[in-house]
Amino acid sequence: MRKVWDLIGGVHPPENKHQSVQLPIGVLPLPEKLVIPLNQHIGAPAKLLVATGDRVLKGQELAEPSGLVSVGVHAPTSGTISDISEYPIPHPSGMAARCITLIPDGQEQWIDHAGIDTTYAFQDYSPAKLLEMIRHAGIAGLGGAGFPSAVKLSPRKTITTLIINGSECEPYITADDMLMRERAEAIVEGIQILSYILGGPEEVLIGIEDNKPEARAALEPFVRDTHIQLVSFPTRYPSGGEKQLIQILTGHEVPSGGLPADIGIVCQNVGTAFAIQKAIHFGEPLISRITTVTGRACSTNRNYEVLIGTPITHLLAHNGFDENNCSRLIMGGPMMGFTLTDLDIPVIKTTNCILAASREEAPTPPPAQPCIRCGMCAEACPASLLPQQLFWYAQSHNHERLEAHNLFDCIECGACSYVCPSNIPLVQYYRASKGEIRKQAQDKIKSDRARARFEFQKARKEQEEMAKAAKREARKQAAEQAKAMSAGRGDEPQESGDIVKTAMARAAEYQASPAEQQARLERGIARAESHLHSVEKRLETIRKEGTEQQQEQALAAVEDARRRLEDARSKRAQLDNTAGTSDTDKVMERLQASPRDTLEKKIASCKERIAVTRQKIAESDDQTLKAALTSGLEKQQAKLADAQQALAALPDNAPGTPVTQQTTDAAANAIARAQARAAATRDLPAEEQLRQAVVALEGRIEKAKAKLDEARAGESEHVNALQAGLEKLQNKLLDAQQQLNTITAQPSTADDDTADAASSAIARAQARVAELASMSEEDKLRETVASLKSRLEKARIKLREAEAERSEHVDSLRTASEKLQVRLTEAEQQLAEYHP
What we know:
Elements: E1 26-27, E2 34-37, E3 47-48, E4 55-56, E5 61-64, E6 73-74, E7 79-88, E8 96-104, H1 127-136, H2 149-152, E9 161-165, H3 175-182, H4 184-197, E10 203-209, H5 213-223, E11 228-233, H6 242-250, E12 265-269, H7 270-282, E13 288-294, E14 302-307, H8 312-317, E15 326-331, E16 338-339, E17 353-358, H9 376-380, H10 387-395, H11 399-404, H12 415-419, H13 426-488, H14 499-510, H15 514-545, H16 548-577, H17 583-591, H18 595-619, H19 623-649, H20 661-683, H21 686-713, H22 719-745, H23 751-773, H24 777-804, H25 810-832
Parallel strand pairs: 1-14, 9-10, 9-12, 10-11, 13-17
Antiparallel strand pairs: 2-8, 3-5, 4-7, 5-6, 7-8, 13-14, 15-16, 15-17
Helix pairs in contact: 3-5, 4-7, 10-13, 13-23, 14-23, 15-16, 16-18, 18-19, 19-25, 21-22, 22-25, 24-25
């Protein structure tokens, strides 16, 4: 006979088990509804798979595991999902959680299911395959807190002992006792499956208290000739606790804060072994469990196989429940159970007993008296703790000392409260303190995360400021170098009227020679002829096989190609005719070009772009790109309509109306006014320049606010863009005001530096004008495309940062990114026309 060790501490409360073992396990009729919580286990709630109104079959998965420590839930019967909402669940606090409400249809129609192939034994399958079947069957521990069984059966250390808990030490509860009496063979098969999954432990023990001789007798024939041992030990509460049972059967003690697997032991409940046998051999998920309904407030005391989700009222209604005689309705036993405040609470996977106690069984507890320091609580504690000290620290909320005295090793068995002569509810103090400590730990985690986010954001902003400062310094050095180079060439300050002439002179230095221009134009003509030939050939093919829309697009392409060829040839002719002509004359000739020719070219170009864009929209599968292309198409169509309207408004008898002297004078006057303003501003001191800038920005902000109000009133799609523009102007105004305040508060001699900076800026602008003047249209488009790509990338980075920080500017940044995408698409289309 195997040696057993004595339980440390413990008590002998009245058992009251005989009332509910007089009848076999019963089955209740289907309830009107089943309420199935998504979280009936330790770990993450299951992930919902169904919706309101769905019809489901018995055994169908309603929610799948949402993580490693999680299990799914299944339909206990066939029916319709009527609701998915918050509902009271079994919990000491009476909290509500998300539940699925199922209305049974009475058909009990199973989903297609099957266990392992009957021609093979379970040993022919890998342990990993069996664990996956257990996980998807939704099996969690049925004797304790509901830890997912598949996780518990996947220890990282070698297991030498498997213990099956059949002690069921809590008073009144007989669910495991009756299960062992009536379904012993299935339990033993389940134990053998567990042993195989764990790699064949050296010992497999079934622990049963000596007050269950019928259960032992039922199991003995099926464990004979196996490596499973039946071990009986004296009845004493709480011998059914996991750590206590391990100590009784093996003499080993689980370390404080540790797990049984740390010492090579796994402990499972007999109900869990039975559920695993059904899942492996028959493919049935965990949709029911054995539950004891007992207490003198019920005329019938019995065990039932109850569907998960059955309301408590349904159980009580079929057991002659007398509400007037009920003192407390308890889920669980009198030692570790909790009082139910709502009778509609459903049965879940860990519900082993419903105790309807009468006033004689559960009288109102007397008021608590001061602790007399008798030490009885310490003698009764099965975890060798000091309940008296824990009580004092719990009263004073001294969490540090509670943890130092191993509060979390308390299994909340209630033995200390049971023996306390002062009637102090010690367990309630310990539960409340555990909750406070857990909440503090969670708050600390949240605080640490918030601090990390803040520090990251602060570091990012500092890096951005450093990058901006570096760019400003680089620009300043570039301006100084440009100034030094200008001084080295002996340039003298120029009058405002000479700026344009000087820029044109510099542009002439970079302008290509006539021979190079001639060669470039010849290459352009060759490309245009080749493009015309290819689009004409394509038009011929489409006329035979294509649709009407494709023919329209091809015709527009041919028309545009011809226009481009004529334009290229005319440019070559102009180059031949204007050899030796001054730059000023060339500019005037360009100004005096025929408006009709210009508009016709623009119309042809717009038609070609519209055709290409439509083709890209039809071919694209990217919804974001389609939206951008559609927006660009609308703009192109608007430009085409404007050009056609302008062409129609031209006089028929003036196909080549030149620019008049009045027009030329108006342009010259505008240039003169701009130069005068630049000269006047340049001569002003820095303080006055900032004052004028502040006044101008204030005026622009007023106009921007008016436009934003109009857009909001008309529910315009441009509200976000206008809001972003207004914010930029306000930021610029704030910067200008800060600079002005700095100059006003601290007078300095920085006027010369400001003037030098302005001169440098003007020099850079002049250089840029000269550079652009010397570039071809194709090169300008290349620069535009490169610039737009860079701006789009920066805009996307800012958008991602704003989304990560949940900024209020996310919508405006997204709109700006979409607009940049549209502009980039249009620029790329224009550039592609140079390389057909």
